[in-house]
Amino acid sequence: MKRSRPVLRQVAWASVPVWSIGFLSCVPFLASAVINRRKRDWARFAVYLAATIALITDVTAAREQLGRFSSADELSAYTQLSPDRVDELRDLMIFT
Question: Has residue 94 got a pLDDT over 70?
Protein backbone atom coordinates (compact mmCIF):
# COMPACT_ATOMS: atom_id res chain seq x y z
CA MET A 1 0.00 0.00 0.00
CA LYS A 2 2.91 2.36 0.64
CA ARG A 3 3.98 2.09 -3.02
CA SER A 4 0.72 3.57 -4.33
CA ARG A 5 1.28 7.02 -2.81
CA PRO A 6 4.54 7.80 -4.68
CA VAL A 7 2.98 6.54 -7.90
CA LEU A 8 -0.09 8.69 -7.34
CA ARG A 9 2.16 11.69 -6.68
CA GLN A 10 4.09 11.05 -9.91
CA VAL A 11 0.90 10.75 -11.91
CA ALA A 12 -0.42 13.98 -10.38
CA TRP A 13 2.75 15.92 -11.23
CA ALA A 14 2.87 14.41 -14.72
CA SER A 15 -0.74 15.45 -15.36
CA VAL A 16 -0.14 19.16 -14.68
CA PRO A 17 1.00 20.00 -18.24
CA VAL A 18 -1.95 18.09 -19.68
CA TRP A 19 -4.76 19.76 -17.74
CA SER A 20 -3.12 23.19 -18.01
CA ILE A 21 -2.85 22.86 -21.81
CA GLY A 22 0.91 23.24 -21.57
CA PHE A 23 0.87 26.57 -19.75
CA LEU A 24 2.18 25.00 -16.53
CA SER A 25 4.53 22.53 -18.18
CA CYS A 26 7.46 23.75 -16.08
CA VAL A 27 5.77 23.04 -12.71
CA PRO A 28 6.74 19.33 -12.42
CA PHE A 29 10.36 20.30 -13.12
CA LEU A 30 10.20 23.02 -10.46
CA ALA A 31 8.96 20.44 -7.96
CA SER A 32 11.75 18.07 -8.93
CA ALA A 33 14.36 20.83 -8.59
CA VAL A 34 13.08 21.89 -5.18
CA ILE A 35 12.98 18.31 -3.89
CA ASN A 36 16.32 17.11 -5.32
CA ARG A 37 18.27 20.41 -5.18
CA ARG A 38 20.57 19.46 -8.04
CA LYS A 39 21.94 21.97 -10.57
CA ARG A 40 20.88 19.71 -13.42
CA ASP A 41 17.25 19.80 -12.22
CA TRP A 42 17.34 23.58 -11.91
CA ALA A 43 18.75 23.85 -15.43
CA ARG A 44 16.00 21.57 -16.75
CA PHE A 45 13.39 23.72 -14.99
CA ALA A 46 14.90 26.89 -16.53
CA VAL A 47 14.69 25.40 -20.02
CA TYR A 48 11.05 24.39 -19.56
CA LEU A 49 10.23 27.78 -18.05
CA ALA A 50 11.75 29.53 -21.08
CA ALA A 51 9.79 27.25 -23.42
CA THR A 52 6.57 27.96 -21.51
CA ILE A 53 7.16 31.71 -21.74
CA ALA A 54 7.80 31.35 -25.48
CA LEU A 55 4.56 29.36 -25.84
CA ILE A 56 2.53 32.03 -24.05
CA THR A 57 4.18 34.77 -26.10
CA ASP A 58 3.45 32.97 -29.37
CA VAL A 59 -0.17 32.31 -28.45
CA THR A 60 -0.65 35.95 -27.48
CA ALA A 61 0.97 37.18 -30.69
CA ALA A 62 -1.14 34.82 -32.82
CA ARG A 63 -4.31 35.98 -31.10
CA GLU A 64 -3.41 39.63 -31.68
CA GLN A 65 -2.61 38.92 -35.34
CA LEU A 66 -5.91 37.11 -35.92
CA GLY A 67 -7.82 39.91 -34.22
CA ARG A 68 -6.47 42.48 -36.68
CA PHE A 69 -8.35 41.11 -39.66
CA SER A 70 -11.48 43.10 -40.40
CA SER A 71 -13.23 40.47 -42.49
CA ALA A 72 -13.38 36.73 -42.92
CA ASP A 73 -12.04 37.17 -46.48
CA GLU A 74 -8.83 38.78 -45.21
CA LEU A 75 -8.35 36.02 -42.67
CA SER A 76 -9.14 33.43 -45.33
CA ALA A 77 -6.48 34.85 -47.65
CA TYR A 78 -3.93 34.95 -44.82
CA THR A 79 -4.53 31.40 -43.61
CA GLN A 80 -5.28 29.95 -47.06
CA LEU A 81 -8.46 28.36 -45.71
CA SER A 82 -11.87 28.47 -47.30
CA PRO A 83 -14.19 31.17 -45.87
CA ASP A 84 -16.46 28.63 -44.16
CA ARG A 85 -13.44 27.15 -42.34
CA VAL A 86 -12.35 30.65 -41.33
CA ASP A 87 -15.71 31.21 -39.64
CA GLU A 88 -15.15 28.04 -37.63
CA LEU A 89 -11.67 29.25 -36.71
CA ARG A 90 -12.97 32.65 -35.60
CA ASP A 91 -15.65 30.95 -33.49
CA LEU A 92 -12.95 29.00 -31.67
CA MET A 93 -10.83 32.10 -30.98
CA ILE A 94 -11.77 34.68 -28.39
CA PHE A 95 -12.17 38.05 -30.07
CA THR A 96 -12.89 41.29 -28.33
Answer: no
Q: Average of pLDDT values for 57-86?
A: 67
> In the chain, pLDDT over 90 holds for what percent of residues?
17
**First CA to last CA distance, the chain:** 52
Instruction: Look up residue 90 and give its DSSP letter.
Output: H
DSSP state of 96: -
The structural domains of the chain, with segments of one domain joined by +, span 4-92
**Which pTM value belongs to this model?**
0.57
How far apart are alpha carbons 44 and 9 in whole angstroms?
20
For residue 42, which of 51, 31, 33 has the smallest C-alpha distance? 33
How far apart (Å, rounded) are the C-alpha atoms in residues 32 and 34? Answer: 6
CA dist., res. 45 & res. 12, Å (int): 18
